[in-house]
Amino acid sequence: MNENLFTPFMVPTFLGLPAVVPIILFPTLLFPTSKHLITNRLIIIQRNLVQLIMKQMMTIHSTKGQTWSLMLMSLIIFIAATNLLGLLPHSFTPTTQLSMNLAMAIPLWAGTVITGLRFKTKNSLAHFLPQGTPTPLIPMLVVIETISLFIQPVALAVRLTANITAGHLLMHLIGSATLALLTASFLATSLTLVLLVLLTILEMAVALIQAYVFTLLVSLYLHDNT
Amino acid sequence: MLSRVVLSTTSTVAPSLKNAAFLSPGVLQATRTFHTGQPHLAPVPPLPEYGGKVRYGLIPEEFFQFLYPKTGVTGPYVLGTGLILYALSKEIYVISAETFTAMSLIGIMVYGIKKYGPSVAEFADKLNEQKLAQLEEVKQASIQQIQNAIDMEKSQQALTQKRHYLFVVQREKETVAKCIADLKLLAKKAQAQPVM
Questions:
Q1: Phi and psi (nearest 5°) for A14?
Q2: What's the average model confidence in pLDDT over B130-157?
Q3: Which of A38, A48, A88 is the closest to B105 by Cβ?
Q4: What does the record give under GO molecular function (chain B) (predicted)?
Q5: Per DSSP, what are the bridge partners of residue A13?
Q6: Residue spans per domain, chain B
Q7: Least confident of A12-21, A130-139, B15-24, B128-137
Q8: Where are the beta strands (DSSP E) in chain B?
Q9: Chain B environment of A44 (Cβ under 8 Å)
């Protein structure tokens, strides 16, 4: 039972070739496009969902903020699809790799900061000092706000990585526990039930996408509109 | 896809047609021929409306039909059970932690699809029909507008006809009557002359 628990998270290579590239590109096959007005049910449902999410997320922004809609919508669709596909057995989830999440988080966050600094310099610099602070606290508070600003991309990336990795690991461990207890016939059924519940909760990994894009959205909102 | 919407509406209107609709795609499937003659791009051969029928979401119906003459109804199921037991006993498929993950995931998916599948499909069809109904409404409004314009044009033409009658024809009648009166006067004068 000396199982290597790292194996689900190893970047897959096939005969020395990185197989991770087709794996990252695979969700694009699941979202077809059609040039017809009346399409099949899959496209209708997907289009409806994307419209719903877009209405929910992008209406709070100004015109300049809404130029980011394509980026944010494709981001949320990609992360949702990748996380859901990772629930299948023996599959690899790219979002478990910190490298990929950092590669997603840092450019997007930097984009919002630079946009804010470029077009509304005074406003974005004013974010470093909350309103109504007593004067002796100002230097310390500026340092703290700077730190909290620079920790935003790291927090975004690590949040996503940790959640998905922890979920996968937990499912794997509970599955192996069920397997081990099967011979003892002891609470095996209750553990499978727990696994089931955990799985449905893990399917709230989709909620994590919401969290991801939403936090990004909030930062964009703050940087552009305020 | 348009025909699927038409089919769904006709099935509510004429239920006897519903069975006929399900036969035709299968017939089309059976008559598809491959690699006969030169390939040509146009006219595009018609694609079937529905995909092939599938049992248990994985195995095509044709497989069961293929085995039926030799092994009857239970044939494919015995074959499937044998294959699964063979794979398990020879450890071709190893039961591991991921087996339970797969079992629970598939269980949840099947439960979700069975419970919410038809309502989601209905919702999607309704969205399609709404789109079509909107466009149909625009088309009907446009036709109605043109019809109204035609009617108005006709009434305008009738009015001009009336005017034509009133002014031109009446005047013609008057001039003709005047002409006749003048001629009568002249005739009378001419009659009066030779007397002199």
A1: -125, 110
A2: 95
A3: A88
A4: proton-transporting ATP synthase activity, rotational mechanism
A5: A18
A6: 54-160
A7: B15-24
A8: 54-55, 59-60
A9: 124, 127-128
Give the whole-angstrom CA distance, residue A56 versus residue A54: 5
Q: What is the pTM of this model?
A: 0.74
In the DSSP assignment, the letter for residue B46 is P
**A219/B117: higher pLDDT:** B117
Kindly give the parts of chain A with pLDDT less than 50. 226
Residues 6+ apart with CB under 8 A from A220: A61, A65, A68, A112
Q: Do A38 and B131 touch (CB under 8 A)?
A: yes
Cβ contact, residue pair B105, A37, below 8 Å: no
Give the pLDDT confidence score for residue B61 in this predicted structure.
Answer: 92
Q: In the 3-class helix/strand/coil scheme, how is chain A assigned residue by residue? A: CCCCCCHHHCCCEECCEECHHHHHHHHHHHCCCCCCCCCCHHHHHHHHHHHHHHHHHHCCCCHHHHCCHHHHHHHHHHHHHHHHHCCCCCCCCHHHCHHHHHHHHHHHHHHHHHHHHHHCHHHHHHCCCCCCCCHHHHHHHHHHHHHHHHHHHHHHHHHHHHHHHHHHHHHHHHHHHHHHHHHHCCCHHHHHHHHHHHHHHHCCHHHHHHHHHHHHHHHHHHHHCC
How many C-beta atoms lie closer than 10 Å to residue A28's C-beta? Answer: 12
**CB contact (8 A) between residue A38 and residue B5:** yes
Amino acid type, B102? A
Check CB contact of A45 with chain B, cutoff 8 Å: yes
For B129, nearest residue in chain A (alpha carbons)? A38
Across the interface, of B1, B100, B135, the residue whose CB is closest to A39 is B1
Per DSSP, B60 falls in state: E
pLDDT at A219: 63
- Tokens for B23? 């036969």
Angle between helices A138-184 and A205-224 (to 10 degrees): 170
- Whether the Cβ atoms of residue B63 and residue B76 lie closer than 8 Å to each other: yes
Q: How far is CA A166 from CA A129, A173, A206, in A?
A: 36, 10, 15
